[in-house]
Amino acid sequence: MDKPLPRFNSLTEALNSIEKTGCVVKGERGVGGGCINSCSILTLSTGRKLFIKRNNSEGEEMFLREASGLSALASVAEAPPVPEVLAYGIDSSFSFLLMEYLEPAAKNNNFWEDFGRSLARMHRYGRNSQCGFTEDNYIGASPQVNSVLDDWIDFFRIRRLEYQLKMARDRGLADSFMQSLVQSVMDNLDQILIPCDKGGASLLHGDLWSGNFITGPQGRACIIDPAVYYGHREADLAMTRLFGAYDPVFYSSYNEEWPLEPGSTERMDLYNLYHMLNHLNLFGGSYAGSVLSIARKYA
């Protein structure tokens, strides 16, 4: 972040700092969409609306990492819009993150084209010489290790697949067959994946399934809940297909803005092995079949 995010010891203190005047919460409306945090829209006595996430006191670190990720995305010109982060802190027994409320609107006529092109520009102009990020963060509720490495394939093997597989093994969620199969995939990565594009690793949202964009003001796509790091842009696009693909116009517009390398479609499932392993660790054995299905394809 360009400047430290203000931390407050109460929600009231944070709200008064943001509004620069005494104010109270006049209304609160809960919103769904997440299984980790409690989310609401606050209406203040000044008439302003803010978006708040709450968690227990241990969630403060997670909120700070989310804020850092949103700041990184916002720093790239022409990237999809993100909500501005305003403050975070702990109030009594709960931690909180306060953000700009993005008033929803109907999708505009160029919604998918604009979304595809703006994501391509974010990937193209948000670059770094190494893979990883300045700090670790979270993918859902799981730790995401971002210690930098020069090589993308090594990074994906060690920081993504190996880390999640070890977690699953330690939790008794990966039997010897799954471990052997995923290890075979990791051994084959050099023959399947390709290095990052010339110019370095791309800034990735990191968790860009269909639940992590919203239709904001002017009917544009706004991206939320990131798990950012620098890596291969194909990994972001793979996640957009995991739980129901985006509109085809999104993909064709992305490819017009910055064409993908040949064979990208065949690599998509492999990138999602990381997310299936994470879902196995988060939600249990019901995801074992999905892990095995992808691993068999690339072992």
Task: Give a verbal description of the structure.
With 299 residues, this protein is an alpha+beta fold. It has 2 domains: 7-100, Phosphorylase Kinase, domain 1 (2-Layer Sandwich); 111-298, Aminoglycoside 3'-phosphotransferase, Chain: A, domain 2 (Alpha-Beta Complex), CATH 3.90.1200. It has helices at 11-19, 60-74, 111-125, 152-170, 176-192, 233-239, 248-257, 264-283, 288-298; strands at residues 7-8, 25-31, 38-44, 49-56, 85-91, 94-100, 127-128, 137-139, 142-144, 201-204, 213-215, 221-223, 229-231. The protein starts with 6 loop residues before the first strand and ends with a helix.
How would you concisely characterize the structure shown here?
The chain is an alpha+beta fold and 299 residues long. The protein folds into two domains: 7-100, 2-Layer Sandwich (Phosphorylase Kinase, domain 1), CATH 3.30.200; 111-298, Aminoglycoside phosphotransferase (APH), C-terminal lobe (Aminoglycoside 3'-phosphotransferase, Chain: A, domain 2), CATH 3.90.1200. The protein has nine helices and 13 strands.
For the terminal residues, how far apart are their CA atoms? 40 Å
As residue ranges, the low-confidence spans are none
Q: Percent of residues in helical segments?
A: 40-55%
Radius of gyration: 20 Å
Main sheet specs:
6 strands, mixed
| The level-1 CATH class of the largest domain | Alpha Beta
Q: What CATH architecture label of the largest domain applies?
A: Alpha-Beta Complex
Mean pLDDT: 94
Query: In percent, how much strand structure appears in the residues?
Result: 15-25%
